[in-house]
Amino acid sequence: MEVKKAIELAKQNDQAAFNYLLDRYWNDIYGFQIKRTENENDAEDITIQTFSKAFDKIDNYNDKYVFKTWLITISKNIHIDLVRKHKSSINSRINESNDDIVYGIPDESPTPEDKIIREQNLAKLLKDIKKLKPHYQEVINLRYFQELSYKDISKELEEPINNVKVKLLRAKKLLAQIITKPNA
């Protein structure tokens, strides 16, 4: 399959085309991010977010541009957003009455109310996860609750690593739909 054909099919929601594009460009995007982040987990997470966002917005892709360049631009923007979030979470200020620099680090330890809310949110999340098909539940469990790498999940499920990546993408997308669906 050629890239242009795969993009056309992906715009029609063809799963084989999504798999082809993921397989074809995964190493390019992952390699780009590993150089930027110097962290395998961050690079993997950003790469998954990149493909997820690209596949969601595939209808907006303009074929005047090279598809790989479009993916790298999405990936770069996701990384920039994450860096900005990280920087904004660090509060510092200078105490001018003293010549020393004082860093005001807020106490971010959870309050009792935060703990109750977190437990309630976790219980709801677990209920929502149970609404997924069993194979999606399994991949979510292995990645986020058992914190296995994609390679370990691949071994556990006896599936190629790219299948695990796509399955996790789909599971996250379906879970997001369940979570955001208004309660009937």
From TrEMBL:
Belongs to the sigma-70 factor family. ECF subfamily. It comes from the Bacteria. Keywords: DNA-directed RNA polymerase, Sigma factor, Transcription, Transcription regulation. SUPFAM superfamilies: Sigma2 domain of RNA polymerase sigma factors (SSF88946), Sigma3 and sigma4 domains of RNA polymerase sigma factors (SSF88659). NCBIfam families: sigma70-ECF (TIGR02937). Residues 129-175 form the RNA polymerase sigma factor 70 region 4 type domain. CDD domains: Sigma70_r4. One of its GO terms (cellular component) is DNA-directed RNA polymerase complex. It comes from Winogradskyella haliclonae. It holds the Pfam family Sigma70_r2. The keyword Transcription applies. Residues 22-87 form the RNA polymerase sigma-70 region domain. This is DNA-directed RNA polymerase sigma-70 factor.
